[in-house]
């Protein structure tokens, strides 16, 4: 087994090196993607794929790509959505499932599978592993039937409801495995959103980062490797899922981490299996090499100072309650919009009196409350008298100055 895996690793390595010749490393200038009107930075890689997207896994912010909103058959990357539906529902991972004849019918030469038999007994946890690691179509159908109380159609309906909840504009699902259908499509940007949501679950993140695993039915073990070769050849890789379909080509949803940075890359319709891995690595490396996470809103920093009501000579400083960091890359524009209305008659220390909104490249990233560094009480009677007296005399002077 080890010799076979070593030989396979050598073969894949040579294939990836050859595929690298097909990927242009850097674009000559800024690129306009065909969806959303966003501009990809000039130093972003020009990948030999139909569509791709790179996002910040922490905030979900789109960083670069090409045709990120084009509707493309996603293949087995669809199985990420099945997993997300299950995890969002709080499925019992230890519950036993009986594999139906329908689910087992997908074990054969046509579909990727793990070789499940009708009436096999496996846990939900093992169906997750079998669906996500070797991309078992038989396993994902068994899982989907379980989620739909025996009905695949009911499960698929849940997938489309989840797409609506996530506000995905370019995704619709017709089956749980990503089989080609005119009613089954997604986009690079949408798949990045789905993957980010799924990666928030530790069990999902652990599963898709596993290089080799096994499950056990009632009478036999089944071993399998991960179809995501990026896990073997790219040290920063942490997941996620391959997809291949005749109409959608070779695709990959991938993730990587480096120190305090984490990214999700989606590559759709690559010309070959090898190119999808090379292209994904280049997209992730672009993120790691070109962006830095920096503090952009500082806790306790003064972002506004305001005069107290009826007291022209007294003011209070408004400070941010927390620190916010963000990825800043080539050409990034950082803007902080401070908003604060009229101060109330009195306020305690730490009371919210405004907010600072952080925008990167025109997109709102987060809003942080601004609070009073020091509280204050109501203005006294004499404060009010003095305030109105000064206003009266200033108004009178301005009036006569205008006459002259």
Overview of this protein structure:
The protein is an alpha+beta fold and 404 residues long. The chain folds into 2 domains: 2-290, Beta-lactamase (3-Layer(aba) Sandwich), CATH 3.40.710; 296-379, D-Ala-D-Ala carboxypeptidase, C-terminal domain (Peptidoglycan synthesis regulatory factor (PBP3), Domain 2, Sandwich), CATH 2.60.410.10. Helix content is 32%, strand content 28%. The strands form 6 sheets. Strands 4-3-11-10-9 form a 5-stranded antiparallel sheet, sandwiched between helices. It has a 5-stranded antiparallel sheet with strand order 13-14-18-17-16. Helix 2 (79-88) packs parallel to helix 5 (137-147), helix 2 packs parallel to helix 7 (188-199) and helix 4 crosses helix 5. The chain is elongated.
Mean pLDDT across all residues, rounded? 88
CATH architecture of the largest domain: 3-Layer(aba) Sandwich
Number of domains: 2
- N-to-C order of helices and strands: HEEEEHEHEHHHHHEEHEEEHEEEEEEEH
Indicate the overall shape: elongated
Judged by helices, strands and strand pairing, the structural class is alpha+beta
Would you report the number of β strands?
A: 18
User: Stretches where pLDDT falls below 50 for ≥5 residues?
Assistant: 1-37
In DSSP terms (H or I, runs of 4 or more residues), the helix count works out at 11
CATH superfamily of the largest domain: DD-peptidase/beta-lactamase superfamily
Helix percent band: 25-40%
Alpha-carbon Rg, integer: 28 Å
Q: Could you tell me the CATH topology label of the largest domain.
A: Beta-lactamase
Q: How would a textbook summarize the main sheet?
A: 5 strands, antiparallel
β-strand amount: 25-35%
